[in-house]
Design goal:
2 domains; alpha+beta; 55% helix; five-stranded mixed sheet
Amino acid sequence: MRKGAALFLAALIAAAPLTAAAQDQADCKFQDADADWATEAMQAWAIARDDLLKVPEAETPARLILYDAACTFTVDADPWRAAAHGGEIETPDGGKLPAKVASFAAAFGEGQPFLVMALPSIWEAQGVKSDLGLPTMLTGVFLHEMTHTRQMTGLYPRIGAFQKAYGGSDFDDDIVQTRFEANAAFKAGIDAERDLLYRAAAAATDAEARALARQAHARIAARRAKWFTGKDAMFAEAEDTFLTLEGSGQWVAYAWLTKHPLGAEIEPATALTAFRRGGRKWSQDEGLALFLVIDRLVPDWQARVFSDEPASALQLLAEATR
């Protein structure tokens, strides 16, 4: 396990004193349930990183910022530290957010990754529930976001370039959905191709899976050719990038929940329902479907997605059809 994680877990288990900067914050200690979850989440990430994503430990570890209602707990290459936050979380890129339910990955400085996530006590206090059990669901969320911290070099520059070209204040991973959700024909296309992908992932044979993937690929290509034109042409790369980003994050959470012998041992149908969330988020739902198909039909895709010049979800789908 990487140095930062090891220090973090040692601090949790030993209840080590706070760093000098936070000595006056005597109440900044993990609640027992939050400490148990954080330990298990870091162990799950080690499994997901090594066995599912098959990527090495990062030379520059992600900075993790976890928080409860009173305090932030930060770990990176340095020893862990804690401090009262006064109801507002400061992020390494200069942002601020209220100490409520949140989980996201981003970058600061020269592309250094960080992850911010509310601890389970906050999610529980805000009434969040899951059929998987809240701690298990949040471990899946944590794995999703930690996966993003390994994609900063390859995918985030593309996102930055698109964001600059787009110039809107509503930019996020749902940007294609924001632009086209009111377009009934576009949405019907998304629904049809997504359903074909889930059918391909569940097909009885690889030959059937490939045939269904071929149909889905043709539908995706036709939809993109029809709608991503003129001033909307810039959405083509954004869609592919966010399907890659969100789909791989969803896949690793699903795979840990269902496939790994040291994972959560959740029934696939239950895990799929939980992480699809009714298909409300296009990039996450279709992205997951894409990577279920890719994982079935494209060997060793992980090395190609988690690289400085990553292959995209739609590139890999095209290979799956062949």
